[in-house]
Specification:
The complex is a heterodimer of chains A (about 325) and B (about 700). Chain A has helices at about 5, 10-15, 20-25, 70-75, 120-125, 130-145, 170-180, 190-200, 215-230, 240-245, 270-290, 305-325, and strands at about 45, 55-60, 80-90, 90-100, 110, 125, 150-155, 160-165, 205-210, 235-240, 250-255, 265, 295-300. Chain A is of the alpha/beta class. Chain A has 2 domains: about 5-30 and about 90-325, 3-Layer(aba) Sandwich (Rossmann fold); about 45-90, no CATH class. Chain A has a 6-stranded mixed beta sheet, with helices on both faces. In chain A, a hairpin with a 3-residue loop joins β7 and β8 (about 160-165). In chain A, α9 runs parallel beside α11. With about 700 residues, chain B is an alpha/beta fold. Chain B has 4 domains: about 1-80 and about 660-685, no CATH class; about 90-205 and about 565-660, Rossmann fold, CATH 3.40.50; about 215-300, no CATH class; about 335-550, Class I glutamine amidotransferase (GATase) domain (Rossmann fold), CATH 3.40.50.880. Chain B is elongated and about 120 Å long. The relative contact order of chain B is 0.12. The interface of A and B includes residues 103, 128, 214, 252 and 282 of A. β11 of chain A pairs parallel with β2 (about 35) of chain B, so a sheet runs across the interface.
Chain lengths: ~325, ~700
């Protein structure tokens, strides 16, 4: 965490460029499973009771409470109908950003006027960590603008920095300060990070995990299982560099891992096809795991803008929530 | 297998390492690449890279092989054994010791061409393998060992005793003797001919320079016997046509205490037909004092006075080379007149009138020989430069074929229509000889009144020297009878034209030869041509200018870097023959090798070569003084023709052609293999090509 950078007060503008915000503004951030909140807002609850807004009539079945019978309808038609209401709730969002060493990979040259972290300036490239923090900031800003409680955390082998969930006015500054860090020389352990975050989570929370998910899939599976067990929702945002996705590199050279892996002599022309197959297989495995727990996975190409992918993701989730209501 | 350009083979082999070096260089220069998805990469590598690495090494090997094969192909491999001297041989050394070899050598300052030639011969002898033997011949014919070959050491000793002579060069005879000597041995034989190949170094017997510029030059000045008088200078007098056998020179004598005396001393050139050296002594006698000046006939291009009938040996060209010293006279049979011996008491035959024009005064003019047309065969036409066919109807089919052959090989043919009515079809072969599309009407046209020649005659090389007087000369000529020669303008050009614009004389070419055809016969019943002043200069100019035209077509030169196709230029190997006693000849005929000294040449025409499979003799002509070699006249074709005439077979040609073919074949095979490898590599590359990446 860099206090000096955060104190400059310009990071929010850098992360939340008008372009990004403009693309996100038409969408509402909705969780598939809306947490029960205490704060009225724009998020609708699928749970019945504590009605705030009439939703629809449903024919009475045995076991339904007679408190919700619409007597006026009964008086007019001698039929029993139950009134259903939609309850609007607050949303707790926790954004976990992978700050491991593999996130410092990037091949897109930094353009003038772009936001970024210290890692960006040092490497001269737009890294996966930059993309993750930018996305996280955008999400956080959106949540805050909807009065949702949002917190962020940066983790690797454990949490390296975290901001508790809050919807206060100073929360945004805290979030930016937290995100203004850089990857550390450690591997990402989703289990350890989730365990630490779960220890602080009292309400149902939407966990947004931004990582390249290149580590052990088993660790991720355990972390997701714990989230599911505690009744939380999660969105997995896989941050991958364009070159990682395509291996558009015609070289024969030694490849050095960022997380201490052994050097590997590789001729990219000869193994490109196999690599792409392996990558596809890996991402499919992650996706299967996420779907098994009812979570979403979205792959981000770090050479593409944050906005369109986020917008697509949120639009999809809104559609899912709406269909769930009906 | 040898390589004609061995350094190219080495370069090809070295180039084979190029892909490997590039591979290692690029590999070393590759910086490590940081990568996040190492686990995925590792799994992909485990799947593929081992097999791919093997394939890539195969491709690398193929590429190396392609480079090596291309290099070898360019190096032109050859199984050359043409002039290999790795086993005992019999070497016939022909050393030019003629008077022409006394000239200074441009290659070796301070030495004569003879010294250089002798050094080349000794060098060739020293390069012989053990057990070899040597014949020594000189072009002067003074030294020769034709009975038994001698040991190389003895041959070298013999050569060291030799000195240049004042004899004319008789290279052909020397080579013939050498060839005969080598025929008597069962061992492989080689002839080494060392000469400067200047004009005086090559003789051609019985060939003569047409009357042209020639003069005398004093070569040596002697002194009187007592030493009281010395001839300090000898001046020439203007030569005249009458100076056939003698010339008068002015000799200046200085005696102590007395005034310089000057006398004109007649010098008689004796035996001009056999001894062309024309080394004569100008003897000065005054009282008891006697001085002798040795006079050598020399050619001076600045002198235009006609007088001496001299020749540049081996070509019949105007003498324009200061080094030339040999004087020849025209042989008696250089001009052949084809007619039967007969006495035409009425008006004389065409042959008689033409012979009279050729030699109006006995001993002056162009000597000639009569030959019966029925006896025309190859042997009878040998040596003839001009053939005047006065009785074409008497030539049989073989005779016409021989005339065509001689003409194509470079001879002048003059055709005169027969004067008698004849039923023999001579017009067709005659028109065929003149060229395609030419026809000669069978009917003779009678002109009544007689035709006259046009005052303005066309420009023709035949009449160029008498063009200024031609109008006057043709005026009195009347044509009563003539034949009609028709044909396209490209087939022949008119020399003289009659009043009705029909040609009276036409000029045509065939091969390297020239054909002149008369439309009228030089007899009074046909025309007044023979009786008018035009006839003698017309006949003589026809012969002389026609022969000049024969030579004008030969512009190919040797020793200038550009050889005609099929010609071989050899250069000797100096200094390395003891270790590598072979001459390597590339397909273009040039000796290659780092030790080859440029300039020594042999020109051999591949065309028409008789391979002489039973012969193993080779001939190497060493030009020890390329600068002396006349580039204008000693051209490859001439030298080759001359050598071919000298030797009954062309020994070197067959082996060299074989060498060339083997080299070309091997190169072609190597290139085909290289192309096949490239094809295989392309297919392999396509088979294992990596698809374009797709975003996941």
């Amino acid at each position: 965490m860099s206090q000096s950078v955060a104190s400059q007060g310009l990071r929010a503008e850098q992360y939340l460029s008008p372009e990004t915000l403009a693309q996100l503004a038409p969408f509402e951030l909705r969780a598939k499973m809306v947490a029960d909140g205490v704060m009225n807002g724009m998020h609708q609850s699928p749970l019945q009771g504590m009605a705030v807004e009439f939703a629809a009539h449903r024919q009475y079945t045995a076991g339904d409470s007679i408190r919700h019978l619409d007597w006026k309808v009964f008086g007019r038609s001698d039929k029993l109908y139950v009134k259903e209401y939609r309850q609007e709730t607050n949303l707790d969002v926790m954004i976990l950003v992978d700050g491991s060493a593999s996130m410092s990979f990037g091949t897109l040259g930094v353009k003038q006027g772009w936001g970024g972290t210290d890692a960006t300036r040092r490497r001269g490239a737009w890294t996966k960590f930059d993309h993750a923090t930018a996305s996280a900031a955008a999400l956080a800003f959106l949540c805050l603008s909807q009065r949702d409680r949002v917190g962020v955390a940066v983790g690797a082998d454990g949490l390296r920095g975290a901001v508790r969930k809050s919807a206060t006015r100073d929360q945004w500054r805290s979030i930016v300060r937290c995100l203004s860090s850089e990857p550390v020389e450690a591997r990402f352990s989703p289990t350890a990070c989730i365990n630490q975050l779960l220890a602080q989570a009292s309400h149902r929370t939407l966990f947004v995990i931004l990582s390249d998910f290149l580590g052990d899939p088993e660790g991720l599976r355990i972390a997701l299982a714990r989230l599911r067990h505690r009744g939380h929702d999660a969105i997995l945002l896989a941050m991958l560099d364009h070159r990682e996705l395509t291996l558009d590199l015609d070289v024969e050279a030694p490849f050095v891992g960022l997380e201490g892996e052994a050097t590997l002599d590789v001729d990219t022309r000869t193994i490109r096809k196999a690599y792409l197959e392996e990558l596809q297989r890996h991402l499919n495995g992650i996706d299967r795991q996420a779907r098994a727990f009812g979570y979403d996975l979205q792959v981000f190409d770090t050479h593409e803008s944050v906005g369109p992918v986020l917008a697509a993701l949120l639009a999809r989730r809104e559609g899912m929530v709406t269909r769930g209501h009906r | 297998m040898m390589f004609i350009s061995p350094w190219l083979a080495v370069a090809g082999t070295v180039a084979m390492a190029l892909p490997i070096l590039i591979h290692l260089f690029l590999r070393r220069r590759q910086k490590p690449i940081e990568w996040a998805a190492m686990e995925l990469l590792r799994r992909a590598v485990q799947q593929n890279q081992r097999a791919r690495r093997v394939e890539r090494w195969v491709l690398l090997a193929l590429r190396c092989l392609v480079l090596m094969l291309v290099g070898l192909a360019i190096a032109r491999p050859a199984t050359l054994t043409a002039i290999s001297l790795d086993r005992p041989v019999v070497l016939a050394v022909v050393l030019d010791d003629s008077v022409a070899s006394r000239t200074a050598s441009a290659m070796s300052p301070g030495e004569t061409a003879f010294d250089a030639a002798r050094a080349a011969c000794i060098e060739s002898i020293r390069a012989l393998p053990s057990g070899s033997s040597v014949h020594v011949f000189t072009t002067s014919g003074l030294i020769e060992h034709t009975n038994e070959p001698v040991q190389p050491e003895r041959a070298i000793a013999t050569l060291n005793t030799l000195a240049p002579t004042y004899e004319p060069s008789r290279v052909r005879h020397a080579v013939v003797r050498a060839d005969d000597a080598l025929r008597r041995t069962t061992m492989p034989g080689h002839i080494v001919l060392a000469s400067s190949f200047s004009r005086g170094a090559l003789d051609t017997e019985d060939q003569v320079l047409p009357t042209t510029k020639a003069t005398l030059e004093i070569r040596d000045v002697g002194s009187d016997d007592t030493g009281t008088a010395a001839i300090t200078s000898v001046m020439q007098r203007t030569l005249g046509p009458q100076s056939i056998d003698s010339v008068t020179v002015d000799v200046t004598v200085t005696r102590p205490g007395q005034d310089t005396a000057r006398r004109s001393v007649p010098v008689t050139v004796t035996d001009t037909k056999t001894d062309r050296s024309a080394i004569v002594d100008a003897v000065f006698i005054e009282g008891s004092q006697r001085a002798v000046a040795t006079v050598t006939l020399m050619v001076d291009p600045t002198v235009t006075k006609h007088g001496w009938i001299a020749t540049i040996p081996s070509d019949r060209q105007p003498a324009d080379d200061q080094r030339c010293t040999t004087i020849s006279t025209r042989s008696s049979n250089s001009v052949l007149v084809l007619d039967r011996e007969r006495l035409d008491v009425d008006e004389g035959s065409s042959a008689q009138w033409i012979e009279r024009a050729l030699e109006p005064v006995p001993g002056l003019g162009l000597s000639h020989q009569r030959l019966d047309p029925a006896e025309v065969r190859a042997s009878s036409l040998k040596g003839a430069s001009s053939i005047i066919i006065c009785r074409p109807e008497l030539l049989d089919q073989a005779g016409w074929a021989e005339c065509r052959s001689v003409c194509e090989s470079g001879a002048l043919i003059v055709i005169v229509p027969p004067t008698d009515e004849t039923f023999v079809d001579w017009q067709d072969p005659c028109s065929t000889l003149l060229g395609p599309g030419v026809t000669i009407r069978r009917a003779v046209v009678n002109h009544e009144p007689p035709q006259r020649l046009q005052a303005q005659q066309p420009v023709s090389p035949i009449t160029q020297l008498i063009a200024s007087e031609l109008t006057e000369l043709v005026a009195p000529v009347e044509i009563s009878r003539s034949i009609v020669i028709e044909g396209p303008s490209t087939a022949f050009s008119p020399i003289l034209v009659m009043g009705d614009n029909t040609p009276m004389m036409v000029l045509s070419t065939r091969g390297r030869g020239v054909i002149v055809a008369f439309a009228t016969a030089p007899v009074p019943s046909w025309s007044t041509l023979a009786t008018k002043p035009i006839f003698v200069p017309l006949v003589q100019e026809t012969i002389r200018q026609g022969e000049v035209l024969l030579d004008a077509g030969n512009t190919v030169t040797i020793g200038l870097g550009r050889l005609p196709e099929g010609t071989t230029e050899l250069r000797p190997i100096r200094g390395s023959t003891t270790t590598d006693p072979t001459l390597t000849v590339d397909p273009s005929g040039v000796i290659v090798g780092d030790d080859a000294t440029p300039g020594i040449m042999e020109a051999v025409m591949a065309q028409g070569a008789n391979t002489g499979a039973s012969r193993r003799t080779t001939l190497v002509a060493l030009n020890v003084d390329p600068s002396a070699c006349d580039p204008q006249r000693n051209d490859a074709a001439r030298l080759t023709a001359w050598l071919n005439q000298t030797m009954s077979v062309t020994p070197t040609t067959g082996t060299k052609i074989k060498t060339t073919q083997s080299s070309a074949t091997a190169s072609a095979w190597l290139l085909m293999v290289a192309a096949l490898i490239v094809l295989v590599e392309t297919l392999l590359g396509r088979m294992y090509s990596v698809p374009e990446p797709k975003a996941t």
